[in-house]
Amino acid sequence: MVFHGKWYEEAKVGDSFGSSLTVTETHLVLAAGMFGDFNPLHVDEEFAKKSMFGGRILHGPFTGALVSAPVGNYFAGTAIAYLEHTCRFKAPVRAGDTLNVRATVIDLVPEKRRATLSTVITVGNRVVLEGEAVVIVPLRSSLPAAESSAARPR
Q: Rounded to whole angstroms, how far apart are CA atoms 24 and 138?
């Protein structure tokens, strides 16, 4: 099954979409290796237990990167560029937490084909991340006719 995302003219202010992921021990280990950040808050449970967090926490950049999944899927095969991504980390994320990622289209700039999205990640009722993302998405009508009809079967 091939999933085709939204073209610019199909996106509407207020569109909301998301995904979920349960963080595992593997995520903590992979994040340390990917980022080269072996701060004991992420990799040493005994050290982290004595911290203000009371245990190991996931790297902030890993949490922030999870916003790109629903954005990438919503605009699958259409987005040209993910231009900006801001994050405000509101609470720690731990192994065992199920993250619910939500993005909402809050602004569309037709002359630039840009979509601005409000992003939020929650664990239950607790907000762990808030931010915004900006992507460039082409108009379906801007493609040559043959390419446009082949790009997204109806």
A: 36
Residue 58: domain span:
8-151
Given a cut of 90, whether residue 5 has pLDDT beyond it is: no
Q: Around Cβ 58, how many Cβ atoms within 10 Å?
A: 22
Q: Is 96 left (phi over 0), alpha (psi -120 to 50) or beta?
A: left
Helices (H), the chain: 25-35, 40-43, 45-49, 60-65, 68-74, 145-151
Spatial CA neighbour of 89 closest among 61, 68, 69: 61
Bridge partners of residue 126, in order along the sequence? 123
Assigned token pair, 48:
């982290």
Mean pLDDT of 53-63: 95
Write down the H helix ranges in 7-152.
25-35, 40-43, 45-49, 60-65, 68-74, 145-151
**Residue 62, domain member (yes or no):** yes
pLDDT of residue 143: 61
Biggest CA-to-CA distance, the chain: 62
The whole-number pLDDT of residue 76 equals 85
Specify which residues 98 forms β-bridges with.
22
Q: Which CATH number is 70's domain given?
A: 3.10.129.10
